[in-house]
Amino acid sequence: MTKLEDLEIWFVTGSQHLYGPEALTQVANHSQTIATSLDSEKSLPFRIVFKPILTTAEEVRGLCREANNFTKCIGLVLWMHTFSPAKMWIAGLTSLTKPFLHLHTQFNRELLWSSIDMDFMNLNQAAHGDREFGFITARLRLARKVVVGFWQDPETVAEVATWARAAAGWHESQNLKVARFGDNMRDVAVTEGDKVAAQAQLGYTVDGYGVGDLVARMNQVSDAEVDRLVGEYREAYSIAKEHDQPASLKVAAKIELGLRAFLEEGNFGAFTDTFQDLHGLEQLPGIATQRLMADGYGFGGEGDWKTAALVRTMKVMAHGLPGGTSFMEDYTYDFSGTPKILGSHMLEVCPTLAAAKPSLEVHPLGIGGKADPVRLVFTAPSGAAVVASLVDMGNRFRMIVNEVDVIQPEQPLPKLPVARAVWLPKPSLKVAAAAWIYAGGAHHTGMSQALTIDHLEDFAEMAGVELIRIDADTRIHTFRRQLRWEEAAYSRNL
User: Are 326 and 338 in contact (CB under 8 A)?
Assistant: First the structure.
């Protein structure tokens, strides 16, 4: 999978020769200072690399081509320190395949009222140059993020950091491979989709494998490897006496070792399985899937490859941030008091969401017709989160995102043998669930207590994916009108 520490964002500044070499030297010095400052910000998880000032169309086109061909470059931050005539950007921008952020800032925070002269005005005119640049990006109808503010302000840095994480997610999507063990769960609609369209628009590939391929790799695992991993289970998790079942633990460990090896050897970043296709497996993968997600893999149950890819992309965007990210499912409601959602899945919730040390347990599954699977049981901590769904609408992909507040269960859940999260969707369950259903959102989601809706909105802009927000301001009557407008716009290929 992608080595995130190797990724770069290029800081690029536009100017022109009208102001003379001395002014260009100042522009370069100022630009390098800003790039160095951003590179030192801990909230920015990737290198910010200063690039030479661009003053001609040939230089612009050359740098854009260089960015396209440099695999570690995941995006560009563009700033017009002076007036940079925008026609010289057309050839470069129309050939650029990497996302870009337009930073509308200036080197000085305050005006030097008593000493300002025309030399200062000509040099520090981002208010002029960025508007010229803004016109050409709008005229060319280019996807981009615009951030306005002084470059050292925390709010400005935070907006750049959010976009940078989305750019990393987009970079991952372009290189992601998803392995599907078995097909989709039979008769389910929302987990289906056009894999060719997904690869064309989102970049990732989805390849199917028989469960026998996985079993063959599992059979290469040695008894010593299994014993070592079972020992790791015993050290890492709480295990009550009744759940300390050595035979079950060994089966689970063998599944994890074989699955991990298969994914590593095939350079896969995400995977799916389905309880309807388990031939050759003694258990449905539970703890194996949970631990692989904790290590950064994406997962989708019942063959849901879109959610598997989304979860992996979200994990890349959330890299290094506090809070977990997981495959999730809206499971059941509590309509008493303040209505809320109990989210879970049969087995597969990522332990990065655990508020405390998970408990390793063995219980019957009641579905799939296999032996009792091993799983980790825990409850998610309280705090803000998002749940996101990616669906195929036929003529486009749509991402639906709901802001939620995770809370603690009002009562213990002693008989619920799965990991879970309880949340209050914004603005309320009544409105959020209606909006989700009107928009066609799936029951499977990617849930994150690390990301915000802004991360996903920036990603959707890069991907050209329709994004539907459900937040504290959502009102059903305006929401339904928005859906009609979106449908009309995409029907006209706008």
Answer: no
- CA–CA gap between residue 56 and residue 417 (Å, rounded): 64
Q: For the chain, first and last CA: distance in Å?
A: 35
- DSSP letters for 413-473: -TT--S-EEEEEESS-HHHHHHHHHHHT--SEEEEESS--HHHHHHHHHHHT-EEEEESTT
pLDDT at 473: 97
- Among 398, 482, 479, residue whose Cα is nearest residue 432: 479
Closest CA to 364 of 403, 417, 327, 429: 417
Token output for 297:
């893999």
Containing 248, the helix (H) or strand (E) segment is helix 246-265
Q: Which residues of 93-113 are buried (b: 16+ CB within 10 A; e: fewer)?
A: beebebbbbbbbbbbeeeeee
> What SS3 class is residue 343?
strand
What is the identity of the amino acid at 400? I
3-state SS, one letter per residue, for 35-89? HHHHHCCCCCCCEEEECCCECCHHHHHHHHHHHHHCCCEEEEEEEECCCCCHHHH
344 to each of 29, 190, 416, 421, how far by Cα in Å?
53, 18, 10, 6
Q: Is residue 442's pLDDT more than 80?
A: yes
- The structure tokens 């089966």 sit at 251
Handedness of CA 207, 262, 245, 359 (dihedral sign): negative
Confidence bin at 493 (pLDDT 50/70/90): low
DSSP type of residue 372: P
Q: Tell me the backbone φ, ψ of residue 359, rounded to 5 degrees.
A: -100, 130
DSSP run (H or E) holding 162: helix 154-175
Token readout for 197 is 């369209």
Amino acid in position 388: A
**pLDDT exceeds 70 at position 227:** yes
Rounded CA-CA distance 54/77 in Å is 13
Residues in the chain: 494
Whether omega for the bond prior to residue 322 falls within 30 degrees of 0, making it cis, is no
Q: What is the pLDDT of residues 324-372, one digit of tens each?
A: 999 999 999 999 999 999 999 989 999 999 999 999 999 998 777 889 9
**Percent of the chain with pLDDT strictly greater than 90:** 87
